[in-house]
Amino acid sequence: MPTAAAGTGLVFNIQKYSLHDGPGIRTIVFLKGCPLRCLWCANPEGLLPVPQTGRDNRACLGCGACAAACPAGLHRMRPGPDGIGPHRGDRAGACLGCGACVAACPAGALTLWGRPMTVAEVLDVVSQDEAFYRTSGGGVTLGGGEAGLQPAFAGALLAACRDQGFHTALETCGCLPWPTLAALAGRADLTLYDLKHANDAAHTRLTGRSNATILDNLGRLARTGAALLVRLPLVPGYNDDPAALTAALDRIRGLCGQAPGFQGVELLPYHAFGAGKYDRLGLAYPLAGLRSHTPAALAALETLARASDLPVTLVRPQA
Ligand code: SF4
Ligand code: SF4
The complex's ipTM? Predict the structure, then answer.
């Protein structure tokens, strides 16, 4: 499977005007590939470390232009009355990330997720909002996927952003070799560190991976004195019961509570904004039908978290 060439990173989105991934107004650079498989993942297009295309089946005209354009033969059409018809849906394979199908589609039905970009190319885009960073105290955040799966590119991009005087943040799931995480966090002004569940068995069930490395790395990172915010996704019925939330906060207090760089905990309520992307990828959304918290339920969780005496912020979802 093709990945990004040396000197480039595989970027699946650059999102401007973000208000929730570090201080001020920020640009988020999303890098492809993630070691976890969280049931509630809002960025399924970022999981695999390879280019992928998504298709909006409601917009597709069944014209076959994408199949004709694709050098890898990844768009296959179902035979119709005129010999051509809607996609058969079989797009698994070695996408080259060339974008030919997206350019050929007359309906705008296709999206390419995973474009090889150089640090200079990304810097060109993020620099467009320099004035916003300056006036708001914002900057650039690396997210994903897991940026740490592209460590050379992520490190170079963080360094380049710093050279420009931009505030830098690293958003991480923490499921990385410690030297990789330490090197990247060392180049960021702030690390946003996710913890999905304090219980190892539950964490494994919900994300596909043990939390042992994640907790170990969190403690190590805190001891370096790095600026650190720990983020807890709250998923109704999965990790938001009082015992689970209290256990997570207790672990965070034990690992980070006395650390000089620890800034607090952010609660990230579940949302289903990413559900449509599963459909575009031809995947089933694992949490189909799950409802977000009611305002009353969120208020109760916030009250419970604040009782931990840790600095707690409830982050409202930004579509
Ligand atoms: S991006 Fe290129 S290789 Fe990938 S599906 Fe589209 S045309 Fe084919
Ligand atoms: S080019 Fe676009 S509209 Fe035509 S078959 Fe492909 S996805 Fe559908």
Answer: 0.98
